[in-house]
Design goal:
The complex is a heterotrimer of chains A (about 130), B (about 290) and C (about 200). With about 130 residues, chain A is α/β, with parallel strands linked by helices. Chain A has a single domain, classed as Response regulator (Rossmann fold, 3-Layer(aba) Sandwich). Chain A is about 40% helix and about 15% strand. Chain A has a five-stranded parallel sheet with strand order 2-1-3-4-5, with helices on both faces. The longest helix of chain A is centred in the N-terminal third of the chain and has 13 residues. Chain A starts with 10 loop residues before the first strand and ends with a helix. Chain B has about 290 residues and is of the alpha/beta class. Chain B has two domains: about 60 residues, Chemotaxis Receptor Methyltransferase Cher, domain 1; about 190 residues, Vaccinia Virus protein VP39 (Rossmann fold, 3-Layer(aba) Sandwich). Chain B contains twelve helices and ten strands. A seven-stranded mixed sheet of chain B has the order 6-2-1-7-8-10-9. Chain B has a three-stranded antiparallel sheet with strand order 3-5-4. In chain B, helix 2 runs antiparallel to helix 4. Chain C is an all-alpha fold and about 200 residues long. The longest helix of chain C has 14 residues. Classes of the chains: A alpha/beta (about 130), B alpha/beta (about 290), C mainly alpha (about 200). Chains B and C meet through helix 1, helix 3, helix 6, strand 2 and helix 10 of B and helix 1, helix 3, helix 10 and helix 12 of C.
């Protein structure tokens, strides 16, 4: 966790099947001093989360082979501390039911695409404890 | 399509944007990704493949690649991976087997029960024999159970070689001299033949992973090694193979893929399991519904 | 020696819990799974597979049914899978797209209607289907879409595919898009990436 006095950068996993979206988030976050890894769907995300330490995950909903809700529910069922990994869900859906489903699946926050850089950073800083 | 193949004898120009496009395709398709430091690795191989296919431009090559013309994906992946088979290849998975997987597998079984392990594709036999050797050398409970190891491949010539069990120095390079001395005997041409008892104890069969009827003959495996083959299949075949392998496993059984492979590019049927030595995939224990 | 050479058959009769032949309408998921797999590629099974898909709730059985339909891969199979692009269930939508992605020629006649669908979510998902098509065809379809598309997320999805498959023919449509969405988040970035990829090489 980044706080005053530590030099450790917060590590963020970005999960989206669009290479452009991943690139967009990565360039925004790296410019702000975060370390970023990527995954293309929920299965790869699970592999990454189980193999490396992350401070939070940003996860899309519509992805092949394992969607974001299924990934989050699996994550929250885990036996170790990955179960409480902060999660920012970002989706194209904006209906109330989608927000409710995201909460039920275990998302900490839910944003609707397209996401502005400032909005992304604000939520990431809240979830990682990094200063704005 | 594109401009005429002028300057075919000159190297084709590949821009950084072309490399980006190529890398994203490769990552999406296979899961392979490369850090900035490994960029030269990609550039050379991409140039090689463009030349090998006689493509007049990157765009022509990329179209060919996307259409998987002439099995280009297979050639491309081969150019990125080391394809040799040898004893104790990717031994971290063998270590995972004895350190973590077998405990769960035999946990519910009384002594004397059967443990079934499958190596598919087994190629010329290094993998199934490695499994056998590793178990005998590293699993304290190896004598408490009946271990059935099956090795299968679509290539009957490879299977014949596997049953003969004769190997050159390169195949044995990861084995200690002690193991070679105890389990192999020297034969002609500086090669070694694996112990007859081991040769007789592995069942070698011909099987086509994509053929559901073929695969229906195989059931109740506790552990399957399916390494470095699924990455070459197209989406539909990978899906088919995954469904077949699922049926061949017992509930709770495990499957190990090759080190560059991931179920994220294959199928959601299996759960991801992380152990100290390896990521493996598990057929879920209970059936829900 | 603890190693034994067994028969290739398993010790038990697999996981099927009933003695009856597998059936698509069985109460047992394992049986439905086996039944779907057994019908893979059979064109005359498309109607029963389609009906089974409509009532199936277990994800892996749903996917096995879709795989079975995919193996037939004709217009009827495509029509059986298409409605699930509208599903409220993200997993089901993803499964439908994956199945259809494997059928670029069978899906081709459906692309224009999908890109004109009143539901923006359907248009968005359909862009993914252009990825496995020939570059010229995919470019043509996606440009026709983005030229009239008002929804930023649908355009973003189309642009993502164009980044991979787009030919220089896409540049005018992309430039017009850039103007239309200049004030939107992410799109200017996406469009400039797509333009740079498409025109970057002389390729």
């Amino acid at each position: 966790m980044a706080d005053s006095g530590t030099t450790a950068k917060a590590r963020i996993l970005v999960v989206d099947d669009s290479s452009l979206v991943r690139l967009y988030y990565r360039s925004t976050l790296e410019k702000a001093g975060f370390e970023v890894e990527q995954a293309i769907n929920g299965i790869e995300a699970m592999e990454r989360v189980l193999s490396q330490r992350f401070d939070m995950v940003i996860v899309d909903v519509n992805m092949p082979r394992m969607d974001g809700f299924t990934f989050l529910r699996s994550l929250r069922c885990g036996a170790d501390d990955t179960a409480t990994l902060p999660a920012l869900m970002i989706s194209t859906e904006s209906e109330t039911q989608d927000i409710a489903e995201a909460r039920a699946a275990g998302a900490n926050f839910y944003l609707v695409k397209p996401v502005a850089e400032a909005e992304l950073l604000r939520h990431v800083c809240v979830l990682t404890g990094a200063p704005l | 399509m594109d401009d005429a193949a002028s300057g075919a004898s000159r190297a084709v120009r590949i821009s950084p944007e072309d490399v980006q496009r190529f890398c994203e395709f490769l990552y999406r398709r296979t899961g392979m990704s490369f850090t900035e430091g490994k960029r030269y690795f990609i550039d050379h191989r991409l140039e090689d493949r463009i030349a090998a296919t006689g493509s007049p431009s990157f765009q022509a090559y990329f179209s060919l690649l996307r259409a998987d013309a002439d099995h280009e994906i297979e050639h491309l992946i081969n150019s990125f991976t080391v394809n040799e088979t040898y004893f104790y290849r990717e031994d971290h998975q063998l270590r995972c087997m004895t350190s973590d997987l077998l405990g769960g597998i035999v946990g519910h079984k009384p002594p004397g029960s059967t443990v079934r392990i499958w190596s598919i594709p087994c190629s010329t036999g290094e993998e199934p024999y490695s499994i056998a050797l590793w178990l005998m050398e590293n699993w304290p409970q190896v004598d408490d159970y009946n271990i059935e190891i099956v090795g299968s491949d679509i290539d009957t010539r490879a299977l014949r070689a596997a049953t003969k069990g004769i190997y050159g120095d390169r195949a044995l390079m990861r084995l200690s001299r002690d193991i070679v001395a105890r389990y192999f005997r020297p034969v002609a041409d500086g090669k070694h033949e694996i112990d007859e008892g081991l040769r007789d104890s592995i069942q070698f069969t011909r099987a086509n992973m994509i053929d559901a009827q073929d695969m229906a003959k195989y059931r109740d495996f506790d552990l399957i090694f399916c390494r470095n083959v699924l990455i070459y299949f197209d989406d539909a075949s990978r899906r088919q193979a995954a469904e077949n392998l699922y049926d061949c496993l017992r509930p709770g059984g495990y499957i190990c893929l090759g080190h560059s492979e991931s179920m994220s590019r294959i199928s959601p049927l299996f759960s991801v399991c992380r152990f100290p030595d390896a990521i493996v995939y598990q057929r879920p224990e209970a059936d829900h519904g | 020696m603890p190693l034994v050479k067994g028969g290739s058959k398993g010790s038990a009769a697999g996981g099927v819990s009933t003695a009856r032949p597998p059936a698509l309408d069985s109460a047992d998921a394992e049986s439905r799974w086996a039944a779907a797999r057994a019908l893979a590629g059979q064109a005359d099974a498309v109607p029963v597979l389609s009906a089974a898909l409509a009532r199936e709730t277990v994800p892996r059985v749903r996917e096995a049914i879709m795989t079975a339909l995919m193996r037939t891969g004709d217009a009827a199979s495509v029509e059986a899978i298409l409605p699930y692009l509208r599903s409220q269930d993200a997993g089901l939508r993803a499964a439908a797209i994956e199945a259809l992605q494997g059928l670029p020629s069978a899906i081709a006649p459906f692309m224009a209607p999908l890109f004109s669908d009143p539901d923006s979510d359907v248009r968005l998902l359909a862009t993914e289907l252009a990825r496995n098509m020939k570059a010229s065809e995919a470019t043509r379809l996606l440009c026709a879409l983005i030229e009239r598309e008002q929804h930023p997320n649908v355009c973003a999805a189309a642009i993502d595919v164009l980044t991979e498959v787009g030919t220089p023919e896409a540049l005018p449509a992309l430039e017009k898009c850039a103007v239309r969405f200049a004030a939107t988040s992410f799109l200017p970035f996406a469009i400039s990436m797509a333009i740079s990829r498409i025109s970057g090489g002389e390729g």
